[in-house]
Amino acid sequence: MPLPVTNQMLLTPKANPVRLAAGRPPMAPVSGVVRALPFDGDDEELVEGVIAGRADAASALYERHVDGVQRLVFRLMGPDTELEDVVHDVFLRAFESIARLRDPAALRPWLIGIAIRVVRIRIQRRMRQRWLKVMPPESVPEVGTTPDMSLGEALRDVYGILQQLPPDERIALVLHRVEGLALEEAAASCETSLATFRRRLARAENKFFARAEKKPTLATWLGEVQ
């Protein structure tokens, strides 16, 4: 049974698309000017084009996969002012290391793996910053939360619980329960064994449901799944 997410959770916050370089608004067609056609090819051909230095392939790769990466990052981090920075970082890392991608046809799971690593680093950095504070962690304001966003109480409670989970457990729960990845695919994306991923997922589910039971906003959903 998936986590209690509504359509709000399936979409990233409405924001300007992330761009890896300063872009310009499209210009009206000019008579007599020949324009390049959009890149037409599958992911394997996209990767080959990027490695060959084709700007149209790089642009097409970004446009084809940015929505999926934004959605995953939002589901992992929740409403956060650093979302665009994280997505930007994911694609920077992807373009810098794409020549090392062994199987170009596996572009999507490879991007998922990069996104997971970038998000994990952000989460762990924040956790370390909180431990350095004199005050207890629960008293430290959440970094990057945006309370003015129109999110329901239930969704805020979901992310409140997720933020209390260790990074690897949060990632396991979101990949399997929210993204709907099969256990094998999710474990591969996390670069861990299936057995290790199962243990992380089990711990995350136990903690999540135990804490969700204390949230009145999640009572209806819990009644449906229990």
Helices and strands, with pairings:
Layout: H1 7-10, H2 43-51, H3 55-77, H4 83-97, H5 107-131, H6 153-162, H7 167-178, H8 183-189, H9 194-212, H10 219-225
Helix pairs in contact: 2-3, 3-4, 3-5, 4-5, 7-9, 8-9
N-to-C SSE series?
A: HHHHHHHHHH
Number of domains: 1
The end-to-end distance, rounded to whole angstroms, is 10 Å
Computed over alpha carbons, the radius of gyration is: 20 Å
Q: pLDDT average, as an integer?
A: 75
Strand tally is 0
Approximately how much helix is present in the residues? 55-70%
Task: Please tell me about this protein's structure.
With 226 residues, the chain is an all-alpha fold. The chain is elongated, with a radius of gyration of 20 Å. The protein has helices spanning 7-10, 43-51, 55-77, 83-97, 107-131, 153-162, 167-178, 183-189, 194-212, 219-225. The longest helix is centred in the middle third of the chain and has 25 residues, at 107-131. The chain is built from ten helices and no strands. α3 packs across α4.
Could you list some keywords that capture this structure?
single chain; about 230 residues; mainly alpha; Rna Polymerase Sigma Factor, Chain: A; 10 helices; about 60% helix; elongated
What's the short story on this structure?
The protein has helices at 7-10, 43-51, 55-77, 83-97, 107-131, 153-162, 167-178, 183-189, 194-212, 219-225. The chain has 226 residues and is an all-alpha fold.
